[in-house]
Each structure stands twice: as C-alpha cells, then as structure tokens.
From TrEMBL:
This is Uncharacterized protein. PPR repeats lie at residues 100-134. It comes from the Eukaryota. InterPro entries: PPR_rpt (IPR002885), TPR-like_helical_dom_sf (IPR011990).
Length: 223
C-alpha cells in the first residue's frame, strides 16, 4: 500500500508530523485508513520519540473500532522507551496477551533507561525463560544491570558481560558500544576470541570515537 510505504519512510526520516498529515489527507478524502496505516504512523511516532502521539493513535484506533495489533502496540512501547516513559511502556506491555521479543526488548530498555533496576531484572528473567534471542537493546540492559550491581565503570561491566558470551558480530557491536572510549579493550577481546571486525563493528567504533569521552556515558548507548 502506497500510504504505508510513504508513512514508513517518513518515520525513518523522523518526519512524524508529515506522516500525520498523510493520515489527515486520507480522512479528508473520506477513506478509512487500514490498520497497517496506523501501524506505520505509530512507528513514525516511535522513531521521533513522540510517545503522546503514539498513545493518541492507539486511542484513535478504539474510536474507529479497529483492533490494535502487535505492530501498533510494539511501536507505541518503543515510542515510550525512546521518550523515557517507563510507566507508559509497562502499561502497554501489560495489555499484551502474548508479548513477543520486540515488546520485551522495548519495555526492558525503557526500564533500564529509567534506572528501574529491579523491574529490569525481572523482565530480563522472563525474557530468557521464554527462550527469546537477545536483541541489541536487551544486551545493553544486561550490561547496565551488571554495572549497577557491581558499582563499576560501564566498560568494566561490558567486559565482564562479554566474558560470559559467545561473541559474534552482534555481541561485538554491543561490547564496543559498552566500552565506549575504552573501545581498544573491546578489540583486544575480539582478537582473543577470533572475531574479525566487520563494517558494522567498525561503524560502532566510529560512533564511540566521534563521541569521545561522552561515549562512556550510559545514555549514549541507546543512540
């Protein structure tokens, strides 16, 4: 559907307001937007960290007697996570009958970013009990929980976390971001475990190098 593609692209460009205009144009033409359109709109709001807009769109679905699907709910959770609104993310998560890996990843990130460590640990335990494959944001939450428990530097927590992992490209990227300005230590671990740097890993190194000392700040991890 053309509208869905256009709205999704605007979301990737963080032009959520323009995406909203497209919805209004559909309504003026007396066209009933499909659930996919709303999913794309909520996704655009998520990328723009517009949590209020995302929640309003979910309410609009109820008004139109449309059932919000997992795509809509997960995107709304992501919007709350990016806006650092853990309470709203948890409320949405609780409304899901069978939350998937994306929902868990979003709510775990939301709690970790808000330093709600006990709830983060509980959700991580549930996540692993369900046998989900950990995502980038879940791994970051694991490192932050370890940092809080050990009261150590972020890079120290990242190295301790890596020692318990089977390093691959995804985990190596997490390790580099976790080490921040200490990224050469991540390279040393990769050399020991025979993980060759890839373009993605180099991109992660570039991000922390450009961030400088700020790369050691936990808030920088989520960008």
């Amino acid at each position: 559907m053309v509208q869905v593609s256009a709205i999704s692209e605007l979301g990737r460009q963080s032009r959520w307001q323009r995406a909203q205009v497209l919805l209004q144009k559909l309504e003026r033409r007396k066209l009933q937007p499909e659930i996919k359109v709303f999913g794309a709109l909520v996704g655009a709001s998520a990328l723009g960290a517009q949590w209020q807009q995302a929640l309003q769109l979910l309410q609009d679905l109820e008004t139109r007697k449309l059932q919000a699907n997992d795509v809509c709910c997960n995107a709304a959770i992501s919007a709350c996570e990016r806006s650092q609104r853990p309470s709203e993310a948890l409320r949405l998560f609780a409304s899901l009958e069978d939350p998937d890996v994306i929902a868990y990843s979003g709510v775990i990130s939301a709690c970790a970013r808000a330093h709600a460590w006990e709830r983060t640990q509980e959700l991580l335990a549930e996540f692993h009990q369900k046998g989900f494959e950990a995502t980038y944001r879940v791994h970051l939450a694991e490192i932050l929980v370890r940092k809080e428990a050990a009261q150590c530097q972020l890079w120290e927590a990242a190295l301790a976390w890596a020692a318990e992992q089977e390093l691959d490209e995804d985990r190596a990227c997490v390790l580099v971001r976790g080490c921040g300005a200490q990224w050469p230590k991540a390279l040393a671990v990769m050399a020991e475990t025979a993980v060759a740097p890839t373009r993605r890993i180099y991109d992660s190194m570039m991000k922390v190098t450009m961030a400088g000392e700020e790369a050691s700040d936990a808030d920088m991890l989520w960008d």
